[in-house]
Amino acid sequence: MIDVGIIGASGYTGGELLRFLKYHDNVNVIAATSRQYAGINVSKVHPHLRGENIKFKDIPAEKVDADLVFTATPHGASMDIVPELIERGIKVVDLSGDYRFDDIAVYEKWYGIEHSAPLDAVYGLPEVYREEIKKSKLVANPGCFPTGGILASLPLAKEKLIDAIILDSKSGVSGAGIKPTGATHYPNISDNIVPYAVTTHRHMPEIQQEVSKFGDVKVSFTPHLVPVIRGILTTAHAFLKEDVTSEHVKEIYDAFYESEPFVRVVDMDEIPRLSAVRGSNYCDIGCFQIDPNGRIIIVSAIDNLVKGASGQAIQNMNIMFGFDEKKSLDVTGLHP
Amino acid sequence: MIDVGIIGASGYTGGELLRFLKYHDNVNVIAATSRQYAGINVSKVHPHLRGENIKFKDIPAEKVDADLVFTATPHGASMDIVPELIERGIKVVDLSGDYRFDDIAVYEKWYGIEHSAPLDAVYGLPEVYREEIKKSKLVANPGCFPTGGILASLPLAKEKLIDAIILDSKSGVSGAGIKPTGATHYPNISDNIVPYAVTTHRHMPEIQQEVSKFGDVKVSFTPHLVPVIRGILTTAHAFLKEDVTSEHVKEIYDAFYESEPFVRVVDMDEIPRLSAVRGSNYCDIGCFQIDPNGRIIIVSAIDNLVKGASGQAIQNMNIMFGFDEKKSLDVTGLHP
Amino acid sequence: MIDVGIIGASGYTGGELLRFLKYHDNVNVIAATSRQYAGINVSKVHPHLRGENIKFKDIPAEKVDADLVFTATPHGASMDIVPELIERGIKVVDLSGDYRFDDIAVYEKWYGIEHSAPLDAVYGLPEVYREEIKKSKLVANPGCFPTGGILASLPLAKEKLIDAIILDSKSGVSGAGIKPTGATHYPNISDNIVPYAVTTHRHMPEIQQEVSKFGDVKVSFTPHLVPVIRGILTTAHAFLKEDVTSEHVKEIYDAFYESEPFVRVVDMDEIPRLSAVRGSNYCDIGCFQIDPNGRIIIVSAIDNLVKGASGQAIQNMNIMFGFDEKKSLDVTGLHP
Amino acid sequence: MIDVGIIGASGYTGGELLRFLKYHDNVNVIAATSRQYAGINVSKVHPHLRGENIKFKDIPAEKVDADLVFTATPHGASMDIVPELIERGIKVVDLSGDYRFDDIAVYEKWYGIEHSAPLDAVYGLPEVYREEIKKSKLVANPGCFPTGGILASLPLAKEKLIDAIILDSKSGVSGAGIKPTGATHYPNISDNIVPYAVTTHRHMPEIQQEVSKFGDVKVSFTPHLVPVIRGILTTAHAFLKEDVTSEHVKEIYDAFYESEPFVRVVDMDEIPRLSAVRGSNYCDIGCFQIDPNGRIIIVSAIDNLVKGASGQAIQNMNIMFGFDEKKSLDVTGLHP
Question: In this predicted structure, what is the pLDDT of residue A333?
Fold first, then answer.
């Protein structure tokens, strides 16, 4: 039994952490912090938690005494909190972008923030870094687009089948967070498909960093906001350098993800779909079709709040503490 | 040819006024005001107007010299503007609630605002007040819920067939305006149906005021926000005092709205639907079914931004200036 | 450990039964039948079950040897199957309407089907019939609208506070089943709100039957199809016979549902919402506001496929076999 | 004044043709045929046409005596009808794929249909073939994806800036037609994004045919069905062969479409959006951003039923008969 704190628990990722931890019998949630909602039951903000007996607390991170802390804080805010936690011997899974980059300069360029407190961290993609995560004190939980984008790209990169890949991603609106904006205003996004940050999204260098470790592949990335609550569907387009078959590529993916509990390579007669992963920690990958121009299409689907955020964070916690990796995460998607 | 100004043109009703006036060959739009967007082309806010050569102006109402002004200003703000316009001999169609009530005390109670400048105004529902509107200098354009709710209720009230009516209304999100709020945040309203202000909505006394003129009927009203961009569907439930048939009631409605250009009583084998009125100035009314308990159901459908706001405002303008009442409004709905 | 069969497992209710039973450690699913999909993995139809190792079988009900069978068969088909199962000593939870009515004549009138095989059955609403369900061999699982409608109405009926109630229900499209129709065609229901069977829905007499047992209340019911995947929100309108307060009515509901594991009476500052129950077996009830005309509004929210169908069926199974009533059903809603 | 017939008027494109022709004062609709709905008012199928006094007729094409016929018939059916119409001197705009291909072999390969009656036809994209359309007797109206895809690609191809282009298109569900299918079933497409026919869609060779006339560019195309009623947003990705700026590319597009009435190149600070073209005949094109890998993104937006089908068909008719090209088509989009 470990004590767990959540710093910044009033956002969507906080709500999802609480949802999964509720069923985790090795975990005791000792603090869910929020300045704005201090003293209020979490269910007033996260209505699916109706009946839970947890109140938001307005306490600073340095007053949280736990075995592990999830920092569900904004980019730029985590770096003010994490070092002190680590110093006190508390393990941390940070959901912000602050510790995802090997090269601080890349972070500073794309986030426009000076990094005040760099630390050694492991990039929390268990499919790649499981062994490192086991020993880590600080795990940088991957971004939502990177999770689906990297998992779709790695096997092609590793096998040197491509030089470049274009990730055309479609994200549900919960990815934009709990705070209303013009972009998330229902009349603006319902019945609409909105490309944004088409060449400038900061998840691009994150994907590039990880894909580069497997092969010399140039990553191009364009996200779209779509009228979906949860889920990211990524359509990856790449021109093959060799004349291979779809079946062969599928075998490569099957082998790459063979023992992964949360990556499912789907059959050739199916295509990943959001409802199959909605609410769950799965990443479904498939398609593998090749057109007459030698372009291959890989499609991945995740729930941006689960495998793209809080579910993966708990998966990382399970690995860090030697729990069963699927603990509390063994739930199906919600279809329809 | 008349000169027309729009005070507060950056909201949805402003965008709709501009859309219809673009095709009105008796009208010259001389000013579309907005403090926030002064100097910017209207199409930057209203993207459907792309190509229009109109810029928002930040000028006070008293500098607008026109034959008619639409005040698309918030409740409480119109009363600061309208008297001066009227004094200068400018006709006004006010889209706020400020001039809709016969009894100032009712306004002040339900809007929680002291009324600083009461004036004689005509309630701008042409189906009831056409003759008064012709001679009016100030028309109070009806609220969106009241338009559909009153039109659904009047014939029953007039024929003394009912003592009470329950209006269960479902409104598209554009009715909440162009400004993002928690209620309009996509993840909150998509895949959801949200009752709100269930007994306290200020459109309730407005509907009551008008229905009472036709019969002694108690009006109960509950609105819902629904995952729809445009449109209000109202399901009216009322217990009949007499044993009449659906066919008989339909005849009453047919007769009542016989010569109305924008009210369509639909056949018994159909039901009003939002796509039939989407983008148009029609109010469709139908159903007339009676259950074993003697409850009759009347359904009305409007586009909240058109017949429920800007379209009706232009209809009123047409009447006030002796133009063809359908001028620039003769467009079908958009289905699918 | 019991053996369970599902007859007609290829519909949405079949998919949901399989989803919950996957986590039920007292249950072994020995057959999921489907003529159309025989030999195919269930995940090809129910994509959220990807990874499950269950294939549809085309076997007749009489070849299913189990401790309990869920008959997820259409109205009129269950009566051909259920008697033989019961005769063989198999317990049955029937999800059709065939065994829900005390009076066969009512069934035959509203369903337009002659009932060939009436049997003693218990109406499977645990909040009312828990003790009877424990001893029952055949449980008639309630309809989706009746579940939310009855639970919203009972306390008012029992306390003799009303003579009549109007249920204005809004149902997600999954309630129409897995088979595409004109009504479920995306362009027809997206951005739309569709009243249907306004006075003739066969769930009306089912609700009336159960409410009548608690008080002399006339039930009027009108369903709407709404652009939502899952969920029924019912807005109940009733004129109070006595001058009571909202707080008093809430206390009545609190007391009535005090020990119910799956009914949550929500606080006065909240309103039931679909995302709080999505994917879960909860029925949330609240509102209790009273307007100046003495009309009270009660709002209930359920997931039509869970508390409105498969979740409740499993709740009934748990009761019939003495399992913990919450077994495999203890999951929160999915918000956002 | 010309007489116009519509063969196959009960689908969405038929409904849209009728919507626009209603306001066209040079056109008299003398027949709207439908076998299934013969004798029924068009508004029973196309509810936005409520009030129109036109009934579907079940007459064969050879009994239609008109100046122009729109054949809104399925692929493979047009070829049985069109030759006889042409022979009788009737001009034809065919909305099927039957006459879009220069090379019959390509048609036969991708449509899997033997072509029984090839004829000389002009590809009905006015931005390219206006002069030919003026003199044509048979115009093959472009497909919906090709319209947006070709218009987005041509200037890049003409300037030899690219060798290959990837079109990642997102289509609203009305593009799938009026007939319900599994793919259009609300619970399947709501909250979902569905790639389909990822390398095999028959609009691919159509786009390739037209783009090839402007440059040696390999076209790769993948469509997605998205939870939108109307509209296609195409995100085109291409690697530039030269080092050019976004501004330069925008100038190329500005020049290319300078005098086009229905193509709007949007400012660099905006992005094409579906609501700006919804219900209208515009194609909006923009973006022009270039990422560090030299990939340029071009985005186009159309209403699939208007510029992607019926609106363009009427634009072609206007050109064929020397009417003002914008006649009856001069309507804005519908936002929000």
Answer: 97
Neighbouring C-alpha atoms within 13 Å toward the C-beta of D259: 4
pLDDT at D266: 97
| Neighboring chains of A (3 or more beta-carbon pairs < 8 A) | B, C, D
Q: Are residues C167 and C100 in the same domain?
A: no
Last residue of a domain, one of B72, B104, B119: B119
Partners of B138 in the beta sheet? B92
Please write the tens of the pLDDT for every residue from B161-188.
999 999 999 999 999 999 999 999 999 9
pLDDT over 90, % of chain A: 100
Average pLDDT, chain A: 97
Chain B CB within 8 Å of residue C182 CB? no
Q: Please indicate, yes or no, if residue D191 is contained in any of the structural domains.
A: yes
Smallest Cα–Cα separation from A9: which of A310, A333, A264, A235? Answer: A310
Examine residue C199 and state whether it is found in any structural domain, yes or no: yes
| D199-214 pLDDT tens trace | 999 999 999 999 999 9
Please give the positions of D annotated as active site: 144
* DSSP letter (8 states) at residue D163: S
Known catalytic residues of A are 144
What is the distance in angstroms between the Cα of A187 and the nearest Cα belonging to chain C?
11
Considering only CA atoms, which of B266, B308, B328 is closest in space to residue D51?
B266
Nearest residue in chain B measured CA to CA from D278 = B48
Give how many domains chain D has, as a whole number. Answer: 2
| B160 interfaces chain D, CB cutoff of 8 Å | no
Q: Which residues of C touch B192 (CB under 8 A)?
A: 228, 231, 273-275
Determine the residue among A169, A185, A198 to mutate to test chain D binding: the one whose Cβ has the most chain D Cβ atoms within 10 Å.
A198
pLDDT at residue A189, rounded to an integer: 98
Regarding whether D183 and D75 lie in a shared domain, the answer is: no
Which residue in the set C47, C284, C335 is minimally distant from A335, CB to CB? Answer: C47
Which residue type does A210 have? Answer: E
B128 within domain boundaries: no
Q: Is D255 left (phi over 0), alpha (psi -120 to 50) or beta?
A: alpha
Q: Which residues of chain C have pLDDT under 50?
A: none
DSSP label at residue B62: G
Torsion angles phi and psi, residue C290, rounded to 5:
-125, 130
Residues 36-95 of A with CB under 8 A from D: none
Q: Which backbone phi and psi does B215 adopt, to 5 degrees?
A: 180, 165
CB of C184 less than 8 A from some CB of B: no
Cis-peptide into D336, omega within 30 deg: yes
Write down the pLDDT at residue D263: 98
Question: Does residue C86 share a domain with residue C228?
Answer: no
Whether D278 sits inside 8 A of A168 (CB atoms) is no
Tokens, residue D43: 């508004």
Q: Give contacts of A276 with chain C, Cβ < 8 Å.
A: 47-48, 50
- How many CB atoms sit inside 10 A of residue C324's CB? 12
**Residue D319 — pLDDT band, cuts 50, 70, 90?**
very high
* pTM recorded for the entire structure: 0.97
Full 3-state SS string of A232-284? EEEEEEEEECCCCCHHHHHHHHHHHCCCCCCEEECCCCCCCCHHHHCCCCCEE
Question: CB distance C228–B193 less than 8 Å?
Answer: yes
CA angle (D164, D166, D168) in 5-degree steps = 170
Binned at pLDDT 50, 70 and 90, residue D264 comes out as very high
ipTM of this complex prediction, to 2 decimal places: 0.96
Per CB-CB distance under 8 Å, the chain D contacts of B274 are none
Over residues D126-135, mean pLDDT: 98
pLDDT of residue D39: 97
Domain range enclosing A291: 144-304
Q: Which residues of D touch C173 (CB under 8 A)?
A: 186-187, 190
